[in-house]
Amino acid sequence: MKYGMELAVAALIIIFAGIFLYQNAVIQAGLGEGEEAWGGADDGAADLIEASGYEPWIEPFWEPPSGEIESLLFALQAAIGALIIGYVFGSWQAGRKTA
Amino acid sequence: MHIMEGFLPDPWWQIWFLVSLPFIIVGLYRINKLVQEKREVLPLLAVAGAFVFVLSSLKLPSFNGSCSHPTGTGLGAVLFGPCITAVLGLIVLIFQAIFLAHGGITTLGANVFSMGIAGPAVAYLIYKAGTRAGANTYATVFVAAALADLATYVVTSIQLALAFPGATGFVGAFTAFAAIFAVTQIPLAIIEGAIIALVFKYIVQLKPEILTRLNLLSESTIQKLREAAA
Q1: Residue B114 Cα distances to B25, B83, B88, B93, angstroms
Q2: What is the pLDDT of residue A1?
């Protein structure tokens, strides 16, 4: 099948999204006032360590001042990567056409 | 998998720097050799690095109510081996440590080890074993990339459990950290494996000669894969 793998990956992502939507509904229903679900696992581990009384001995010298600026930088990171992937695959495709 | 800035006490952050350093040196040496001897594979190296950039910036919701991100290192590991991938991982981790306060400079050694070395080493070994056993190439890439992702998070849990055994000892601490990291990661690892397998298919279709140049696939295998996709 020509697009078998594409279909399999698409199906996997749809299943993933479906389970997320279901799971989210369950979690949101059980959430108390002011609580927030879907935090980062990295922060979860940091919280667990701090709960044992440990204090980080050094702070990051710069932190994105807000969630918006953080998401800007994450989007920038993804854009840089996507640009390179698109450029290389595009030039390979063009090379095949002219060859 | 990022261990946050300041979250590894003495002597652990120094130890992980020392462990990671040789891999980075070998990786730089190998990249240098690639540049000199096989310049035509450099675009592929850029793609492998770009993949780590894209995938490690996507924080995905997992099933247990927390978010985590794939690593994207499986592709580089399969194509170029763990040492070169360690250098790619280092670049991304420096970017995130400096601009995003995600991870940290002092924990860079530990994070490079889990994301750039341990995970990719798993992927590389699985890919080699799979091709030697004659398994389906895309299935092998899928398993290699998915387990690389998962291994990264298991190693992070080990690193934290070693540094913070707490009252429960290493095993208890490892279970607690693995519950946060590794369990969250399982669905994301499956998605990552599938995406990297798909990209591998496009490389086979568009630039198969690069894969033979890197001695990754024989021409007969590529012929077979391309016929199956036609």
Answers
A1: 17, 13, 13, 11
A2: 66
